[in-house]
C-alpha cells in the first residue's frame, strides 16, 4: 500500500514523520500541502500526478468544536466539508450544493474511519469521528462557531486544507481521510493560547497508530 500524507506546514510534517519513524520503507510519503484549500489542492494534484497512491490523508492541527473535540484530542473525518463555499443570502448561507454549482462534501470510507479511530483509541488519546470542516478563514468569534455548528450537524473540527486535498484525491478516484489533532477551540480568537506542543505530540502519536493500521 502507498499512502500520501499532506500537512500544511513543516512542524506538522515533522510530527507525522516522527510518528512514522518505524514504518516500512515505501509505504508512506509525507509532503507539504501549504496553507489553505487552494494551495493544498494544487500541491495534492501535483503529488498525485508524480506518484501512485492507494490512499491520501490530510493531516495536521485544527480547531475543535467545543463540547465535541477537546484540545489535545484527535478527530477522524467521517466527511470533509468546504464549510464556507457558497453564498450569503438574506435567508442565510447557501452552500454550493444548494446553489446547484457543485459539491462541498467529500465522503470518507466508513470502514477506514472505524479502523483508524480504533487504532488511535488504542494509543490512549481521546478520539472522535465526525465531519471536519475546511474554511479559508479561521473562525474567530463565538457567533461564527455557533453558526457553523448549527449549519453542519456534528461539526467536530475545522482546518484550512482538508477539502482541497480531498477534492484532488476524489477527482482521481483515490480514497481520502482527514486526521486532525486539536490545538485550540473553535471560537473567539486567542492565537497565543493555541496548544501547539500538545497538538504536535498528539499528531506524532496518532501517526504511529496510522502506521499500525495501514500496512
Ligand atoms: O494565526 C492565525 O490565525 C493563523 C492563520 C493561518 C494559519 C495559521 C497556522 O498556524 C497554520 C497551521 C494550520 O493550523 C490549522 N488550524 C489550527 N487551528 C485552526 C482553527 O481553529 N481553524 C482553522 N484552521 C486551524 C490550519 O489548517 C492551518 O493550516 C494560523
UniProtKB/TrEMBL annotation:
<dbReference type="InterPro" id="IPR000845">
    <property type="entry name" value="Nucleoside_phosphorylase_d"/>
</dbReference>
<comment type="similarity">
    <text>Belongs to the PNP/UDP phosphorylase family. Futalosine hydrolase subfamily.</text>
</comment>
<comment type="pathway">
    <text>Quinol/quinone metabolism; menaquinone biosynthesis.</text>
</comment>
<dbReference type="GO" id="GO:0009116">
    <property type="term" value="P:nucleoside metabolic process"/>
</dbReference>
<comment type="function">
    <text>Catalyzes the hydrolysis of futalosine (FL) to dehypoxanthine futalosine (DHFL) and hypoxanthine, a step in the biosynthesis of menaquinone (MK, vitamin K2).</text>
</comment>
<dbReference type="GO" id="GO:0019284">
    <property type="term" value="P:L-methionine salvage from S-adenosylmethionine"/>
</dbReference>
<keyword id="KW-0474">Menaquinone biosynthesis</keyword>
<dbReference type="GO" id="GO:0008930">
    <property type="term" value="F:methylthioadenosine nucleosidase activity"/>
</dbReference>
<protein>
    <recommendedName>
        <fullName>Futalosine hydrolase</fullName>
        <ecNumber>3.2.2.26</ecNumber>
    </recommendedName>
</protein>
<dbReference type="Pfam" id="PF01048">
    <property type="entry name" value="PNP_UDP_1"/>
</dbReference>
<dbReference type="InterPro" id="IPR035994">
    <property type="entry name" value="Nucleoside_phosphorylase_sf"/>
</dbReference>
<keyword id="KW-0378">Hydrolase</keyword>
<dbReference type="InterPro" id="IPR019963">
    <property type="entry name" value="FL_hydrolase_MqnB"/>
</dbReference>
<dbReference type="GO" id="GO:0008782">
    <property type="term" value="F:adenosylhomocysteine nucleosidase activity"/>
</dbReference>
<dbReference type="GO" id="GO:0009234">
    <property type="term" value="P:menaquinone biosynthetic process"/>
</dbReference>
<feature type="domain" description="Nucleoside phosphorylase">
    <location>
        <begin position="32"/>
        <end position="211"/>
    </location>
</feature>
<dbReference type="GO" id="GO:0005829">
    <property type="term" value="C:cytosol"/>
</dbReference>
